[in-house]
Protein backbone atom coordinates (compact mmCIF):
# COMPACT_ATOMS: atom_id res chain seq x y z
CA UNK A 1 0.00 0.00 0.00
CA UNK A 2 1.05 3.61 -0.53
CA UNK A 3 1.25 5.85 2.54
CA UNK A 4 0.79 9.58 2.18
CA UNK A 5 3.78 11.28 3.79
CA UNK A 6 4.88 14.82 2.96
CA UNK A 7 8.53 15.73 3.40
CA UNK A 8 9.66 19.33 3.70
CA UNK A 9 13.26 20.18 3.00
CA UNK A 10 16.16 17.77 3.28
CA UNK A 11 16.75 17.80 7.05
CA UNK A 12 15.39 15.50 9.74
CA UNK A 13 13.84 13.19 7.17
CA UNK A 14 13.63 10.27 9.57
CA UNK A 15 11.97 12.49 12.18
CA UNK A 16 9.38 13.75 9.69
CA UNK A 17 8.52 10.23 8.55
CA UNK A 18 8.37 8.94 12.13
CA UNK A 19 6.05 11.68 13.36
CA UNK A 20 3.63 11.29 10.44
CA UNK A 21 3.51 7.50 10.67
CA UNK A 22 3.01 7.61 14.41
CA UNK A 23 0.23 10.20 14.06
CA UNK A 24 -1.51 8.02 11.45
CA UNK A 25 -1.43 5.05 13.83
CA UNK A 26 -2.61 7.01 16.88
CA UNK A 27 -5.38 8.75 14.90
CA UNK A 28 -6.59 5.41 13.54
CA UNK A 29 -5.86 6.19 9.89
CA UNK A 30 -3.60 3.13 9.98
CA UNK A 31 -5.69 0.48 11.75
CA UNK A 32 -4.40 -2.27 14.02
CA UNK A 33 -3.17 -5.24 11.96
CA UNK A 34 -2.73 -3.24 8.77
CA UNK A 35 0.33 -4.15 6.71
CA UNK A 36 2.90 -1.45 5.98
CA UNK A 37 5.05 -1.35 2.87
CA UNK A 38 8.55 -2.69 3.20
CA UNK A 39 11.31 -0.32 4.19
CA UNK A 40 12.70 -0.67 0.65
CA UNK A 41 9.37 0.22 -0.99
CA UNK A 42 8.72 3.13 1.38
CA UNK A 43 12.21 4.49 0.75
CA UNK A 44 11.53 4.31 -2.98
CA UNK A 45 8.15 6.06 -2.64
CA UNK A 46 9.67 8.89 -0.63
CA UNK A 47 13.00 9.10 -2.48
CA UNK A 48 15.02 8.63 0.69
CA UNK A 49 17.67 6.13 1.66
CA UNK A 50 16.62 2.75 2.96
CA UNK A 51 18.60 3.45 6.14
CA UNK A 52 16.24 6.33 6.85
CA UNK A 53 13.13 4.13 6.66
CA UNK A 54 14.88 1.34 8.60
CA UNK A 55 15.62 3.78 11.43
CA UNK A 56 11.95 4.86 11.47
CA UNK A 57 10.59 1.31 11.55
CA UNK A 58 13.05 0.25 14.26
CA UNK A 59 11.94 3.15 16.44
CA UNK A 60 8.25 2.41 15.96
CA UNK A 61 8.88 -1.29 16.62
CA UNK A 62 10.76 -0.50 19.83
CA UNK A 63 7.92 1.76 21.00
CA UNK A 64 5.31 -0.92 20.31
CA UNK A 65 3.46 0.81 17.48
CA UNK A 66 4.55 -1.79 14.91
CA UNK A 67 4.97 -5.55 14.96
CA UNK A 68 7.29 -7.53 12.70
CA UNK A 69 6.23 -10.97 11.47
CA UNK A 70 9.26 -12.72 9.98
CA UNK A 71 8.60 -13.78 6.41
CA UNK A 72 5.31 -11.89 6.31
CA UNK A 73 6.08 -8.17 6.78
CA UNK A 74 5.54 -5.29 9.20
CA UNK A 75 2.10 -4.52 10.66
CA UNK A 76 0.43 -1.95 12.88
CA UNK A 77 0.47 -3.45 16.37
CA UNK A 78 -2.60 -5.20 17.76
CA UNK A 79 -4.39 -3.57 20.67
CA UNK A 80 -4.17 -0.04 19.31
CA UNK A 81 -7.87 -0.19 18.47
CA UNK A 82 -8.41 0.92 22.07
CA UNK A 83 -7.33 4.38 20.96
CA UNK A 84 -10.51 6.30 20.00
CA UNK A 85 -10.80 6.92 16.26
CA UNK A 86 -11.71 10.46 15.16
CA UNK A 87 -13.44 11.17 18.48
CA UNK A 88 -13.49 14.63 20.03
CA UNK A 89 -11.00 15.26 22.81
CA UNK A 90 -12.57 14.65 26.21
CA UNK A 91 -10.74 16.47 28.99
CA UNK A 92 -10.90 13.85 31.71
CA UNK A 93 -7.90 15.17 33.63
CA UNK A 94 -9.38 17.93 35.77
CA UNK A 95 -8.23 19.84 38.83
CA UNK A 96 -10.06 19.30 42.09
CA UNK A 97 -13.13 21.38 42.84
CA UNK A 98 -11.07 23.45 45.28
CA UNK A 99 -8.72 24.69 42.56
CA UNK A 100 -11.54 25.35 40.11
CA UNK A 101 -13.31 27.47 42.72
CA UNK A 102 -10.31 29.62 43.67
CA UNK A 103 -10.53 33.21 42.41
CA UNK A 104 -7.78 34.68 40.29
CA UNK A 105 -6.29 36.30 43.38
CA UNK A 106 -2.83 36.66 41.87
CA UNK A 107 -3.97 38.57 38.79
CA UNK A 108 -1.93 41.58 37.76
CA UNK A 109 -2.26 43.98 34.81
CA UNK A 110 -1.03 42.38 31.61
CA UNK A 111 2.69 42.98 31.20
CA UNK A 112 3.33 45.95 28.97
CA UNK A 113 -0.28 47.16 29.12
CA UNK A 114 0.02 49.59 32.03
CA UNK A 115 -0.91 53.25 31.45
CA UNK A 116 1.73 55.99 31.17
CA UNK A 117 0.98 57.35 34.66
CA UNK A 118 0.56 54.26 36.81
CA UNK A 119 -0.07 53.99 40.56
CA UNK A 120 0.25 50.19 40.62
CA UNK A 121 1.11 48.99 44.12
CA UNK A 122 3.89 46.63 45.07
CA UNK A 123 6.35 47.63 42.34
CA UNK A 124 9.65 49.47 42.63
CA UNK A 125 11.50 52.03 40.53
CA UNK A 126 14.17 50.07 38.70
CA UNK A 127 15.52 53.26 37.15
CA UNK A 128 16.83 54.13 40.62
CA UNK A 129 18.46 50.76 41.21
CA UNK A 130 22.32 50.69 41.28
CA UNK A 131 22.84 48.27 38.41
CA UNK A 132 26.61 48.81 38.17
CA UNK A 133 27.31 47.46 41.70
CA UNK A 134 24.71 44.78 41.04
CA UNK A 135 26.55 43.77 37.87
CA UNK A 136 29.73 43.28 39.92
CA UNK A 137 27.78 41.07 42.30
CA UNK A 138 26.46 39.02 39.39
CA UNK A 139 30.01 38.63 38.05
CA UNK A 140 31.15 37.47 41.49
CA UNK A 141 28.33 34.92 41.54
CA UNK A 142 29.25 33.71 38.06
CA UNK A 143 32.89 33.20 39.07
CA UNK A 144 31.76 31.38 42.17
CA UNK A 145 29.54 29.10 40.09
CA UNK A 146 32.36 28.41 37.63
CA UNK A 147 34.72 27.32 40.40
CA UNK A 148 32.24 25.04 42.15
CA UNK A 149 31.20 21.54 41.19
CA UNK A 150 27.67 20.79 40.08
CA UNK A 151 25.58 19.78 43.07
CA UNK A 152 22.27 20.27 44.85
CA UNK A 153 22.52 22.63 47.80
CA UNK A 154 21.00 23.20 51.22
CA UNK A 155 17.20 23.73 51.00
CA UNK A 156 17.54 26.51 53.57
CA UNK A 157 19.69 28.55 51.20
CA UNK A 158 23.29 29.64 50.82
CA UNK A 159 25.09 30.38 54.08
CA UNK A 160 26.46 33.72 52.85
CA UNK A 161 22.99 35.05 52.00
CA UNK A 162 21.44 33.73 55.20
CA UNK A 163 24.20 35.49 57.13
CA UNK A 164 23.57 38.72 55.21
CA UNK A 165 19.83 38.54 55.87
CA UNK A 166 20.39 37.83 59.55
CA UNK A 167 22.68 40.84 59.94
CA UNK A 168 20.35 43.09 57.97
CA UNK A 169 17.30 42.09 60.03
CA UNK A 170 19.14 42.61 63.30
CA UNK A 171 20.28 46.10 62.33
CA UNK A 172 17.29 47.40 60.34
CA UNK A 173 14.30 45.48 61.71
CA UNK A 174 15.43 44.58 65.26
CA UNK A 175 14.80 40.91 64.47
CA UNK A 176 17.52 38.95 66.22
CA UNK A 177 18.38 35.61 64.68
CA UNK A 178 21.28 33.33 63.90
CA UNK A 179 22.02 32.80 60.22
CA UNK A 180 21.02 29.14 60.73
CA UNK A 181 17.47 30.33 61.54
CA UNK A 182 16.92 31.91 58.10
CA UNK A 183 15.28 29.98 55.24
CA UNK A 184 15.54 31.46 51.73
CA UNK A 185 12.43 31.15 49.55
CA UNK A 186 11.15 32.10 46.10
CA UNK A 187 9.58 35.33 47.29
CA UNK A 188 7.17 35.89 50.17
CA UNK A 189 4.46 33.93 48.37
CA UNK A 190 6.42 30.69 48.59
CA UNK A 191 7.15 31.46 52.23
CA UNK A 192 3.40 31.61 52.89
CA UNK A 193 2.84 28.40 50.94
CA UNK A 194 5.50 26.52 52.91
CA UNK A 195 4.13 27.76 56.22
CA UNK A 196 0.62 26.72 55.22
CA UNK A 197 1.89 23.25 54.26
CA UNK A 198 3.53 22.58 57.60
CA UNK A 199 1.00 24.17 59.98
CA UNK A 200 -2.41 23.41 58.46
CA UNK A 201 -4.57 20.35 57.97
CA UNK A 202 -7.63 20.49 55.71
CA UNK A 203 -10.43 22.19 57.60
CA UNK A 204 -8.18 24.13 59.98
CA UNK A 205 -9.11 27.75 60.61
CA UNK A 206 -6.88 30.64 59.51
CA UNK A 207 -7.60 34.18 60.70
CA UNK A 208 -6.84 37.06 58.33
CA UNK A 209 -7.22 40.81 58.39
CA UNK A 210 -10.27 42.26 56.63
CA UNK A 211 -9.49 43.89 54.24
CA UNK A 212 -6.43 41.81 53.52
CA UNK A 213 -3.98 40.41 51.02
CA UNK A 214 -5.82 38.19 48.48
CA UNK A 215 -2.82 36.01 47.48
CA UNK A 216 -2.37 35.02 51.13
CA UNK A 217 -6.05 34.13 51.39
CA UNK A 218 -5.78 32.07 48.20
CA UNK A 219 -2.71 30.29 49.55
CA UNK A 220 -4.45 29.22 52.77
CA UNK A 221 -7.63 28.27 50.92
CA UNK A 222 -5.59 26.13 48.53
CA UNK A 223 -4.18 24.31 51.55
CA UNK A 224 -7.74 23.33 52.47
CA UNK A 225 -8.09 25.79 55.35
CA UNK A 226 -11.19 27.72 56.33
CA UNK A 227 -10.24 31.40 56.22
CA UNK A 228 -12.10 33.68 58.64
CA UNK A 229 -11.92 37.44 58.17
CA UNK A 230 -11.21 39.60 61.22
CA UNK A 231 -11.83 43.36 60.90
CA UNK A 232 -9.22 46.03 61.43
CA UNK A 233 -9.59 49.48 62.94
CA UNK A 234 -7.28 52.42 63.56
CA UNK A 235 -4.99 50.20 65.69
CA UNK A 236 -4.92 47.31 63.25
CA UNK A 237 -6.24 43.78 63.73
CA UNK A 238 -9.10 43.40 66.23
CA UNK A 239 -7.50 40.76 68.43
CA UNK A 240 -10.64 40.55 70.57
CA UNK A 241 -12.54 39.19 67.54
CA UNK A 242 -10.11 36.40 66.66
CA UNK A 243 -11.80 32.98 66.44
CA UNK A 244 -10.68 30.74 69.29
CA UNK A 245 -10.33 27.76 66.97
CA UNK A 246 -7.82 29.50 64.68
CA UNK A 247 -4.74 27.43 64.02
CA UNK A 248 -2.91 30.24 62.21
CA UNK A 249 -3.11 34.05 62.12
CA UNK A 250 -1.79 36.05 59.17
CA UNK A 251 -1.06 39.69 59.92
CA UNK A 252 0.77 42.67 58.34
CA UNK A 253 1.66 44.63 61.50
CA UNK A 254 4.19 47.14 60.15
CA UNK A 255 1.95 48.42 57.33
CA UNK A 256 -1.51 46.87 57.21
CA UNK A 257 -2.35 45.77 53.71
CA UNK A 258 -4.03 47.62 52.07
CA UNK A 259 -5.13 50.38 54.45
CA UNK A 260 -1.72 51.19 55.91
CA UNK A 261 -2.10 51.61 59.67
CA UNK A 262 0.44 49.81 61.90
CA UNK A 263 -0.63 47.32 64.55
CA UNK A 264 -0.39 49.15 67.88
CA UNK A 265 1.94 47.87 70.59
CA UNK A 266 -1.02 46.97 72.82
CA UNK A 267 -2.52 44.89 70.00
CA UNK A 268 0.83 43.21 69.32
CA UNK A 269 1.15 42.15 72.91
CA UNK A 270 -2.49 41.06 72.99
CA UNK A 271 -2.01 38.98 69.82
CA UNK A 272 1.03 37.21 71.26
CA UNK A 273 -0.81 36.52 74.50
CA UNK A 274 -3.83 35.21 72.58
CA UNK A 275 -1.63 32.91 70.46
CA UNK A 276 0.13 31.58 73.55
CA UNK A 277 -3.22 30.74 75.16
CA UNK A 278 -4.69 29.10 72.06
CA UNK A 279 -1.59 27.40 70.64
CA UNK A 280 -1.93 29.19 67.28
CA UNK A 281 1.00 30.20 65.09
CA UNK A 282 1.42 33.72 63.70
CA UNK A 283 2.74 34.76 60.28
CA UNK A 284 4.19 38.28 60.40
CA UNK A 285 4.39 39.49 56.81
CA UNK A 286 6.77 42.48 56.79
CA UNK A 287 6.42 43.08 53.09
CA UNK A 288 7.60 46.72 52.93
CA UNK A 289 8.28 47.79 56.50
CA UNK A 290 11.81 48.94 55.62
CA UNK A 291 10.35 52.25 54.49
CA UNK A 292 9.09 53.94 57.65
CA UNK A 293 8.50 57.69 57.44
CA UNK A 294 6.67 58.69 60.64
CA UNK A 295 7.63 58.11 64.26
CA UNK A 296 9.79 55.46 65.86
CA UNK A 297 9.53 51.96 64.40
CA UNK A 298 7.31 49.72 66.51
CA UNK A 299 8.72 46.46 67.81
CA UNK A 300 8.13 43.59 65.41
CA UNK A 301 6.06 40.67 66.62
CA UNK A 302 9.11 38.47 66.11
CA UNK A 303 11.16 40.73 68.36
CA UNK A 304 8.51 40.53 71.10
CA UNK A 305 7.93 36.77 70.75
CA UNK A 306 9.18 34.81 73.76
CA UNK A 307 7.20 31.63 73.14
CA UNK A 308 8.18 30.51 69.63
CA UNK A 309 4.91 31.62 68.02
CA UNK A 310 5.92 33.94 65.16
CA UNK A 311 7.18 33.14 61.66
CA UNK A 312 8.67 36.33 60.23
CA UNK A 313 8.39 36.66 56.44
CA UNK A 314 10.26 39.19 54.30
CA UNK A 315 11.10 39.76 50.66
CA UNK A 316 13.55 41.55 48.36
CA UNK A 317 10.75 42.35 45.91
CA UNK A 318 10.15 45.78 47.44
CA UNK A 319 13.73 46.67 48.38
CA UNK A 320 15.31 45.51 45.09
CA UNK A 321 12.87 44.35 42.37
CA UNK A 322 10.18 41.66 42.07
CA UNK A 323 11.76 39.70 39.22
CA UNK A 324 14.41 38.34 41.60
CA UNK A 325 11.79 36.14 43.33
CA UNK A 326 13.75 35.93 46.57
CA UNK A 327 12.24 36.09 50.04
CA UNK A 328 12.91 34.53 53.42
CA UNK A 329 11.41 33.14 56.59
CA UNK A 330 12.70 33.38 60.14
CA UNK A 331 10.46 30.71 61.68
CA UNK A 332 10.06 29.45 65.23
CA UNK A 333 12.60 26.71 65.88
CA UNK A 334 9.76 24.21 66.21
CA UNK A 335 8.83 24.70 62.53
CA UNK A 336 12.31 24.74 60.99
CA UNK A 337 12.75 21.03 60.31
CA UNK A 338 9.32 20.68 58.73
CA UNK A 339 9.85 23.79 56.58
CA UNK A 340 13.15 22.44 55.26
CA UNK A 341 11.45 19.18 54.30
CA UNK A 342 8.67 21.11 52.56
CA UNK A 343 11.13 23.38 50.74
CA UNK A 344 13.11 20.40 49.49
CA UNK A 345 9.97 18.65 48.27
CA UNK A 346 8.63 21.75 46.49
CA UNK A 347 11.78 22.84 44.61
CA UNK A 348 14.80 21.52 46.56
CA UNK A 349 16.38 24.98 46.86
CA UNK A 350 16.28 28.45 45.37
CA UNK A 351 18.74 29.57 42.68
CA UNK A 352 22.24 29.57 44.15
CA UNK A 353 23.40 32.04 41.50
CA UNK A 354 20.87 34.69 42.54
CA UNK A 355 21.52 33.98 46.21
CA UNK A 356 25.27 34.48 45.79
CA UNK A 357 24.74 37.81 44.02
CA UNK A 358 22.34 39.17 46.66
CA UNK A 359 24.65 38.00 49.44
CA UNK A 360 27.54 39.95 47.94
CA UNK A 361 25.24 42.96 47.41
CA UNK A 362 24.34 42.95 51.11
CA UNK A 363 27.72 42.11 52.61
CA UNK A 364 29.58 44.67 50.47
CA UNK A 365 27.27 47.41 51.78
CA UNK A 366 25.64 48.22 48.43
CA UNK A 367 22.21 47.12 49.68
CA UNK A 368 22.31 49.53 52.62
CA UNK A 369 23.44 52.38 50.35
CA UNK A 370 20.60 51.62 47.95
CA UNK A 371 18.03 51.61 50.76
CA UNK A 372 19.22 54.99 52.04
CA UNK A 373 18.95 56.53 48.57
CA UNK A 374 15.61 55.03 47.65
CA UNK A 375 14.17 55.82 51.08
CA UNK A 376 14.60 59.56 50.44
CA UNK A 377 13.02 59.27 47.01
CA UNK A 378 10.01 57.30 48.26
CA UNK A 379 9.57 59.73 51.15
CA UNK A 380 9.47 62.66 48.71
CA UNK A 381 6.87 60.86 46.57
CA UNK A 382 4.75 60.07 49.62
CA UNK A 383 4.90 63.68 50.80
CA UNK A 384 3.87 64.91 47.35
CA UNK A 385 0.94 62.49 47.29
CA UNK A 386 -0.24 63.62 50.71
CA UNK A 387 0.12 67.27 49.69
CA UNK A 388 -2.37 66.69 46.87
CA UNK A 389 -4.66 64.36 48.84
CA UNK A 390 -4.90 66.81 51.71
CA UNK A 391 -5.11 69.77 49.34
CA UNK A 392 -6.68 69.91 45.85
CA UNK A 393 -8.02 66.33 46.05
CA UNK A 394 -9.28 66.67 49.62
CA UNK A 395 -12.85 67.31 48.48
CA UNK A 396 -13.10 63.79 47.03
CA UNK A 397 -10.51 61.68 48.89
CA UNK A 398 -9.69 60.99 52.54
CA UNK A 399 -6.17 59.55 52.89
CA UNK A 400 -5.42 56.84 55.43
CA UNK A 401 -2.01 58.18 56.31
CA UNK A 402 0.49 55.30 56.65
CA UNK A 403 3.63 55.42 58.71
CA UNK A 404 5.51 53.09 56.37
CA UNK A 405 5.54 51.35 53.01
CA UNK A 406 5.44 52.26 49.33
CA UNK A 407 1.71 52.71 48.93
CA UNK A 408 -1.06 54.61 50.65
CA UNK A 409 -4.82 54.31 50.54
CA UNK A 410 -7.41 57.05 50.22
CA UNK A 411 -11.13 56.54 50.81
CA UNK A 412 -13.62 58.03 48.38
CA UNK A 413 -16.08 60.67 49.60
CA UNK A 414 -19.51 61.83 48.42
CA UNK A 415 -20.79 58.50 47.19
CA UNK A 416 -18.26 58.15 44.41
CA UNK A 417 -17.53 54.63 43.22
CA UNK A 418 -14.16 53.08 42.46
CA UNK A 419 -15.25 51.81 39.08
CA UNK A 420 -16.37 55.21 37.78
CA UNK A 421 -13.22 56.99 38.99
CA UNK A 422 -10.87 54.28 37.71
CA UNK A 423 -12.55 54.20 34.28
CA UNK A 424 -12.49 57.98 33.90
CA UNK A 425 -8.86 58.19 35.03
CA UNK A 426 -7.87 55.45 32.60
CA UNK A 427 -9.15 57.56 29.71
CA UNK A 428 -6.65 60.23 30.81
CA UNK A 429 -3.75 57.74 30.95
CA UNK A 430 -3.77 57.45 34.74
CA UNK A 431 -3.73 53.95 36.24
CA UNK A 432 -5.71 53.70 39.49
CA UNK A 433 -6.60 50.64 41.56
CA UNK A 434 -9.45 50.11 43.99
CA UNK A 435 -9.47 48.48 47.42
CA UNK A 436 -12.85 46.74 47.28
CA UNK A 437 -11.29 43.51 45.96
CA UNK A 438 -9.36 43.18 49.23
CA UNK A 439 -12.59 42.64 51.17
CA UNK A 440 -13.76 39.04 51.31
CA UNK A 441 -16.62 38.81 53.79
CA UNK A 442 -17.84 42.33 54.59
CA UNK A 443 -19.24 45.25 52.63
CA UNK A 444 -16.21 46.82 50.93
CA UNK A 445 -15.30 50.43 51.41
CA UNK A 446 -14.77 52.46 48.27
CA UNK A 447 -11.22 53.72 47.96
CA UNK A 448 -8.07 53.90 45.88
CA UNK A 449 -4.64 52.40 46.48
CA UNK A 450 -1.83 54.69 45.33
CA UNK A 451 1.42 52.81 44.81
CA UNK A 452 4.32 55.24 44.53
CA UNK A 453 7.23 52.82 44.24
CA UNK A 454 7.20 52.82 40.44
CA UNK A 455 6.14 56.37 39.56
CA UNK A 456 8.37 59.46 39.70
CA UNK A 457 7.59 62.76 41.43
CA UNK A 458 7.14 64.47 38.07
CA UNK A 459 4.67 61.81 36.98
CA UNK A 460 2.81 61.98 40.30
CA UNK A 461 2.35 65.74 39.86
CA UNK A 462 0.97 65.33 36.33
CA UNK A 463 -1.23 62.37 37.27
CA UNK A 464 -2.82 64.02 40.30
CA UNK A 465 -3.55 67.22 38.40
CA UNK A 466 -5.33 65.08 35.80
CA UNK A 467 -7.16 63.24 38.59
CA UNK A 468 -8.50 66.51 39.96
CA UNK A 469 -9.97 67.21 36.50
CA UNK A 470 -11.45 63.71 36.48
CA UNK A 471 -13.21 64.28 39.80
CA UNK A 472 -14.58 67.61 38.65
CA UNK A 473 -15.98 65.95 35.53
CA UNK A 474 -17.76 63.34 37.67
CA UNK A 475 -19.55 65.86 39.88
TrEMBL record:
Designated name of the protein: Putative 8-amino-7-oxononanoate synthase
Pfam families per record: Aminotran_1_2 (PF00155), GntR (PF00392)
Family: In the C-terminal section; belongs to the class-I pyridoxal-phosphate-dependent aminotransferase family.
Organism of derivation: Silvimonas iriomotensis
Keywords: DNA-binding, Pyridoxal phosphate, Transcription, Transcription regulation
Family annotation (InterPro entries): Aminotransferase_I/II_large, HTH_trans_reg/aminotransferase, PyrdxlP-dep_Trfase, PyrdxlP-dep_Trfase_major, Tscrpt_reg_HTH_GntR, WH-like_DNA-bd_sf, WH_DNA-bd_sf
Coiled coil: none
Residue ranges of domain HTH gntR-type in the record: 11-79
